[in-house]
Design goal:
The structure is a single chain. By secondary structure, this protein is mainly beta. It has a single domain (about 10-60), classed as SH3 type barrels (Roll). It contains one helix and five strands; from the N terminus they run E-E-E-E-E-H. It has one helix at about 55-60, and strands at about 10-20, 20-25, 35, 40-45, 50-55. Strands 3-2-1-5-4 form a five-stranded antiparallel β-sheet. A hairpin with a 3-residue loop joins strand 1 and strand 2 (about 20-25). The radius of gyration is 11 Å and the shape is globular. The mean pLDDT is about 90.
Length: about 60
């Protein structure tokens, strides 16, 4: 885990599923990972594609970067 002040990263992702608390997103065509809505900002790009902004440490832990 990366510690210290975290930068934000913006990624284009495909949304595979959504609950009231999380999105299952995919950036690497590998099936996707769940990210909590409470820790990300989302911009809708198309019906199934979003731009998601999250802390760099989270993107790294989830294997998105």
């Amino acid at each position: 885990m990366v510690t210290g002040k975290s930068e934000l990263v913006r990624l284009e992702a495909v949304v595979h599923a959504e609950t009231t608390k999380a999105f299952k997103i995919d950036v690497n065509d590998d099936g996707g990972v769940w990210v909590p809505k409470s820790q990300v900002e989302v911009e809708i790009k198309t019906k199934n594609t979003i731009i998601v902004e999250m802390p760099e440490w989270m993107a790294y832990e989830k294997g998105l970067i």
